[in-house]
C-alpha cells in the first residue's frame, strides 16, 4: 500500500473516473510490471478554485517497486496532459521522506507547506461520551437525514472548505459537482456522517469515508462561521466516531494541514496520534 492513511476502493476509483466533470480534465495513469499494477498517477485541474490554471498531479508507486523509473514516467504523463489543458501551477503532495523530497526537487518542484496524517486506534479508543441532553435548539443528525434535500449540508461544506488553510482555495465548488462527487460517492457513508443543526440550520458536520474493511477516514469536519467556538465540530465528530466503531470500524485516519491548529488540537484530544507527514510541492511549467 503506497498510502495506507487513505481509503481507496475499486468502486470509488471507477466512480471518480466515470463521473468526472469536463472542467476537471481528469486523467488516470497506471504503471504495470509483468501484468501487475505497481503505480498510478492522477492528474486534474482544480476546477473548484476561482483561480484558473491550478492543477494537481498525484503519483504513487508501490514501495516494493520504487527506484525503477515508474514514478518519473507517470509524472511525465500527468504533466504533459495538464500542460496541454492550460495548467499554470502544478501542485503535488509528497511524502516526508528523503527519497520523495529528492524526487520532487529533481523534477523541478519546490517545497511549499506541510501536512499531517493522524491515526486513531478506534477499536481501543477512549472516545468522549455524547452529552445526555443537547442544548435547546441543537439537534444531532446523520447525513442520511438530509437525503430529501442535501443542499444545506453542501452550503456548510463549501463554507468550511473556503476557510481551510492551503495553497489553493476551494472557493468555487458547484452544487452539482458536490452532489455527484461527495454526496453520491460510493465511499461516503451517510449513516456514519454526523450533522449538528441549531435552530434547524446546519451548523457543523463530519463526513465519514469508509472502505467496508474496518477503515474510516474523516472526509471533512467543519463548522459554519456563525457557530464556531461552541464545540459543535467536536460533537459531530464524537457522534460519527462512536457510530463508526459500533458499525465495526477498527481504525480511523484524518489528514490536516499543519497550519490548521484548531483541528489538529481537536483530533489530538480524541486520541489521534501522528502517523505520517507530507509536504505540498509546486511547479510552474515553463519556469523549471
Give your account of this protein's structure:
The protein is α+β, with helices and mostly antiparallel strands and 288 residues long. The protein has seven helices and eleven strands. The longest helix has 15 residues, at 70-84.
Summarize the structure.
This protein has helices at residues 10-18, 70-84, 98-106, 151-163, 175-183, 232-246, 261-270, and strands spanning 27-33, 36-45, 54-61, 89-95, 110-120, 138-142, 194-198, 201-210, 215-223, 251-257, 273-283. By secondary structure, it is of the alpha+beta class.
Major sheet characteristics: 11 strands, mixed
| Secondary structure: helix percent | 25-40%
- Tell me the distance between the termini: 31 Å
Q: Helix/strand-derived class? A: alpha+beta
Helix tally? 7
Strand content: 25-35%
Order of helices and strands: HEEEHEHEEHHEEEHEHE
| Secondary structure tally: strands | 11
Radius of gyration: 19 Å
Shape: globular
Major sheet strand order: 1-2-3-4-11-5-10-9-8-7-6
Return residue spans where pLDDT drops below 50 for at least 5 consecutive residues: none
Tell me, rounded to a whole number, the average pLDDT: 94
Layout of secondary structure:
Layout lengths: L9 H9 L8 E7 L2 E10 L8 E8 L8 H15 L4 E7 L2 H9 L3 E11 L17 E5 L8 H13 L11 H9 L10 E5 L2 E10 L4 E9 L8 H15 L4 E7 L3 H10 L2 E11 L5
Parallel strand pairs: 3-4, 9-10
Antiparallel strand pairs: 1-2, 2-3, 4-11, 5-10, 5-11, 6-7, 7-8, 8-9
Amino acid at each position: 500500500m503506497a498510502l495506507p492513511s487513505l481509503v481507496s476502493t475499486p468502486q470509488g476509483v471507477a466512480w471518480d473516473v466515470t463521473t468526472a466533470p469536463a472542467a476537471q480534465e481528469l486523467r488516470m495513469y497506471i504503471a504495470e510490471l509483468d501484468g501487475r499494477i505497481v503505480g498510478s498517477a492522477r492528474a486534474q485541474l482544480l476546477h473548484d478554485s476561482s483561480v484558473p490554471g491550478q492543477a494537481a498531479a498525484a503519483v504513487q508507486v508501490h514501495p516494493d517497486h520504487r527506484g525503477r523509473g515508474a514514478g518519473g514516467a507517470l509524472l511525465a504523463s500527468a504533466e504533459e496532459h495538464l500542460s496541454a489543458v492550460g495548467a499554470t501551477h502544478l501542485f503535488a503532495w509528497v511524502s516526508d521522506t528523503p527519497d520523495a523530497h529528492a524526487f520532487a526537487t529533481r523534477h523541478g518542484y519546490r517545497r511549499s507547506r506541510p501536512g499531517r496524517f493522524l491515526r486513531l486506534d478506534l477499536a481501543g479508543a477512549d472516545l468522549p461520551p455524547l452529552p445526555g441532553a443537547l442544548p435547546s435548539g441543537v439537534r444531532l443528525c446523520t447525513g442520511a437525514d438530509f437525503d430529501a434535500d442535501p443542499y444545506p449540508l453542501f452550503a456548510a461544506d463549501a463554507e468550511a472548505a473556503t476557510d481551510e488553510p492551503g495553497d489553493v482555495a476551494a472557493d468555487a465548488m458547484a452544487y452539482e459537482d458536490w452532489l455527484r462527487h461527495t454526496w453520491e460517492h460510493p465511499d461516503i457513508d451517510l449513516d456514519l456522517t454526523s450533522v449538528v443543526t441549531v435552530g434547524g440550520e446546519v451548523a457543523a458536520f463530519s463526513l465519514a469515508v469508509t472502505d467496508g474493511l474496518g477503515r474510516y477516514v474523516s472526509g471533512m469536519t467543519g463548522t459554519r462561521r456563525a457557530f464556531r467556538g461552541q464545540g459543535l465540530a467536536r460533537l459531530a465528530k464524537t457522534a460519527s466516531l462512536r457510530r463508526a466503531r459500533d458499525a465495526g470500524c477498527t481504525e480511523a485516519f484524518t489528514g490536516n494541514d499543519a497550519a490548521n491548529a484548531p483541528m489538529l488540537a481537536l483530533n489530538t484530544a480524541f486520541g489521534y496520534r501522528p502517523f505520517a507527514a507530507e509536504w505540498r510541492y509546486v511547479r510552474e511549467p515553463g519556469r523549471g
